[in-house]
Amino acid sequence: MNPLENVENPASGTEYFATQRTPKNYLTEGGHTLKSWLLTADHKRIGLLYLYSILFYFTIAAIAAALMRMELITPEGDMVTSETYNKLFTVHGTLMVWFFLIPSIPAVLGNFVLPMMLGARDVAFPKLNLLSWYLFNGGGLLALYSLVVGGVDTGWTFYTPYSSTYSNSHVIAMAAGIFIAGFGTILTGLNFIITTHKLRAPGMTWFRMPLFIWSLYSTSVIMILATPVLAMTLALMAIERLWGVGVFDPKLGGDPILFQHLFWFYSHPAVYIMILPGMGVVSEVITCFSRKPIFGYHFIAFSSVAIAVLGFMVWGHHMFTSGQSIYAGLVFSFLSYMVAVPSAIKVFNWTLTLYRGSISFNTPMIYILGFIGLFTIGGLTGLFLAAVGLDVHVQDTYFIVAHFHYIMVGGMVTAFMAGLHYWWPKITGRMYPEKLGQLAALTMFLGFNLTFFPQFILGYLGMPRRYHAYAPEFQIYNVMSSAGASILAVGYLLPLIYFIWSLKHGKKAAANPWNATGLEWQTPSPPPKHNFAETPVVDGPPYQYSAEEA
Amino acid sequence: MNFPLFPPEASQIARQTDHLLVALVLFSAFTLLVVFAPMIYFLFKYRRGKKADRRPVHLPETVIEVTWTIIPAIVFTGLFAWGANVYWAIERPPADAMEISVVGKQWMWKMEHPEGNREIDELHVPIGRNIKLTLASQDVIHSFFLPAFRVKQDVVPGRYSTLWFKADKLGTFHLFCSEYCGTHHSAMIGSLIVLTPDEYQKWLMHGAPGPTMAQEGEGLYRSYGCSGCHVRSTVVRAPPLEGLYGRPVPLQSGQIVTADEGYLRDSILLPAKDLVAGYTNAMPSFQGHLSEDDLLKLIAYIKSISDTTPTQETEEAK
After folding, report:
1. Is the distance from CB of B126 to CB of B195 less than 8 angstroms?
2. b/e map of B44-66 (b: 16 or more CB within 10 Å)?
3. Which of A67, A68, A314, A431 shows the greatest Cβ crowding within 10 Å of its Cβ?
4. Sign of the torsion formed by the C-alpha atoms of A488, A492, A498 and A501
């Protein structure tokens, strides 16, 4: 039952520390110079490069959100101008979606642990991996350029003909930034798929892979198939804007609804890029902290694949009120209900995994329990939106805003925090302070609910999204939401502070502080440059935990 | 302090939508209970350090998995059907509806009643009548949203959309633009004012209407030279427009389409798109020459002659 027995070199972790005072690891091997980081091909260093980058973009996007919530405390648009407000929600949406959420778990945690979980020395194409990061930040710099020179006011959805003809802001620079960053995403997906196919350790069959790998694999398929559609769509929009070639603007003979079909054909699957990896983290953490094998391994694995496939068939549910045919509306409504089934299956399986477990409430586990609660509320309100007759009323209101924040922030960001805490000892070789971690997780949960739950009610009352000023009867819920946002901000700042503190003052982490089964724990913390002194051999299924022994 | 949960309910569809919402809220509460009651129980019972029976048990995995796959699928299909039912009522305007034209542009709503009354950011309607709005946009996409009626329709440039409702409450209700349309999006708001039929008649008269929309359309019909071709003449170059609206039209391509507002709009702006069988494409495009207002007036005129028949001469020439 001890997973260490599955590894050819069981002592590699502990003995390493015992025999060497300053064991070489990926942070020391290869040097400390800036150049050694900027030209690294090590998946672990690249994962950290991504971590720093997305934190930078997250900070800008979060400041934009804070300013919006401040503006919305009063019904009058009195703090910033309409123009500024529109630019704020555009910055918030574009940076959060493309420069934080999409790379968050895949490019940071996925990059760091995927090769180790498979027992590989690196991803299949390490240099391509580095190129992904440069493309990502090349795109990011262009996006930042568009902000510095005046901003963009189209919203993250870039609906035509507003974006292609009417907007007087820096649409092209922003679109080009997203276009370029998209190639980074495609290459990451390609790298993960090939790594999973070709670099699994001996004995690591498909159904012995951790569920995090299944979720990243499904995510990668979406990245490769959907992202090119976004690139084409933005390119067509830019061509219309730059040279007046009529594609989307009816004045030039185009069709604005065509843009929406193309945009959501990418952006709906992209929603699953922003949640599937989070679901993978849940399966890793919930098994480890309840000391139980996962219940329904195959069903969870295939539900990831089912979500990836069905996710491509529901884009029309973003367009129930756009004037698409009534029959298209009905078909998309039905398919949207069906894509909810595999998500429901996952929640049920996680719940039953806890049965007869030995449950400890470490920080990652608290985040994961928060995830299940918030994701379930997000998923259930998705059923409200899939009910096409009800969607007509709540489409483009705060109900939508609340729903997708429950999925993306309540789901993905919570799972990202869970994963970051879970693998923090592996990444840094240091433990974070447990009590503070638990406190931050609870703060985030409370702050999140206070911020976004009132928005469901606001939306049903009829407050449209992207409103700089609003009718006075909406004020009370806006005040609650803004109050919640300030608590949420504390929840974000706390981990930032104690993570940095832990780098120097945190307790030294053992190779496997959680006593977890994944291969990434069978190597020292932090791992050596090439992960394993000897390639591990796998001879059993994942998650061989025993609640009785715990 | 006031914590409203529902906007005013001013139509039957608003009530239907609210019933669906309440059903979904109850369903969600039930689901949360089914998932979280056992979860919280497990978290308490099996927390580390507490004595509990933790021996591994073999649960019938496949049976459990199939059960919790099929039950949600069936329930979801039921919810789909309910939502579809409400949608069906929202999307299909009754035939006897009173028609009003609406043009959205950055950042205002222009309403035009068939009687010729015009208003901006306000719409007066009588209670108890089916009202059908024909929505056009002069520039970008807008969305016509009446929260008290639970209806919303995007107003897309280059095409007409429709939205219908039947008010059963008097009063003044919000009108919002709900599709982001640029700088003053949140100022593109107005009111829907529901009046008794008598008050509505009074309001119509008080507005000192000039010519009706159809009369104004007739004027445009002449000034743009449409009458030069679409008229009983010896050399017929264009199909007659009398009695055209609402009837089937055979096209050059062999298709048969109904002459609705959308068809008329396309035929004026893109004459080559739906060429009528037996005619050549002699008509110039009026794209860019006509405002959405004028286009709606022209169509109102063509609709007003839908009960007349073409003269003998044109019939023969055909």
Report:
1. yes
2. ebbebeeebebeeeeeeeeebbe
3. A314
4. negative
**CA nearest A363: which of A425, A406, A309?**
A425
Element (H, E) at B146: strand B142-146
Residue B31 falls in which region: left (phi positive, over 0), alpha (psi -120 to 50) or beta: alpha
Nearest Cα neighbor of A401 from A445, A455, A450, A467 is A455
pTM: 0.91
CB-based contact B11:B149 (threshold 8 Å): yes
| Cα B50 off chain centre by | 61
CB nearest A396 (choices: B7, B69, B143): B143
- Interface size A-B, in CB pairs within 8 Å, comes to 263
Helices then strands, counting H and E runs in chain B, come out as 7, 12
Beta bridge partners of B177: B144
Instruction: Say whether B83 and A388 touch across the interface (CB within 8 A).
Output: yes
- Among positive and negative, which fits the CA dihedral B129, A325, A249, A237? positive
* ipTM of the complex, rounded to two decimals: 0.91
pLDDT tens over chain B, length 318 residues = 689 999 999 999 999 999 999 999 999 999 999 999 999 999 999 999 999 999 998 899 999 999 999 999 999 999 999 999 999 999 999 999 999 999 999 999 999 998 889 899 999 999 999 999 999 999 999 999 999 999 999 999 999 999 999 999 999 999 999 999 999 999 999 999 999 999 999 999 887 667 888 888 888 888 888 877 887 665 667 888 888 888 888 888 888 888 888 888 888 888 888 888 888 888 888 888 888 888 898 898 988 888 777 654 444 443
- Number of Cβ within 10 Å of residue B228's Cβ equals 11
Q: Spell out which residues of chain A touch residue B21, defining contact as CB-CB under 8 Å.
A: 384, 390, 460
CA distance A205 to A540: 9
Angle between helices A43-71 and A111-118 (to 10 degrees): 140
Which of B26, B149, B186, B265 to probe by mutation at the A interface, max A CB count within 10 Å? B186
CB-nearest to A82 from B16, B177, B183 is: B183
A83 close contact with B: CB closer than 8 A: yes
Per-residue model confidence as pLDDT tens digits over A449-485: 999 999 999 999 999 999 999 999 999 999 999 999 9
According to DSSP, the residues that pair with B193 across neighbouring strands are B124, B172
- Taking the CA of residue B113 and the nearest CA in chain A, the distance in Å comes to 23
Q: Please give, rounded to a whole number of angstroms, the shortest distance from the CA of A472 to a CA of chain B.
A: 11
* Rounded-to-integer distance, Cα A539 and Cα A115, Å: 18
Alpha-carbon distances, residue A215 vs A46, A199, A531, B69 (angstroms): 20, 17, 22, 19
Average pLDDT, chain A: 94
Whether A473 has its CB under 8 Å from any CB of chain B: the answer is yes
Asked if the Cβ–Cβ distance from B141 to A296 is below 8 Å, we say no
* Partner residues linked to B132 by β-bridges: B99, B164
DSSP assignment of A440-474: HHHHHHHHHHHHHHHHHHHHHHT-BSS-SS--GGG
- Our CA angle for A499, A505, A511, nearest 5°, is 80
**Whether A469 contacts chain B with CB within 8 A:** yes
Q: Is the pLDDT of residue A400 over 70?
A: yes
Question: What are the residues facing B142 on neighbouring strands?
Answer: B155
Chain A hits for B180, CB-CB cut-off 8 Å, are 86, 155, 157, 159, 162, 465-466
Rounded distance, CA A424 to CA A437, Å? 12
User: Over the stretch A250-289, which tens digit does the pLDDT of each residue have?
Assistant: 989 899 999 999 999 999 999 999 999 999 999 999 999 9
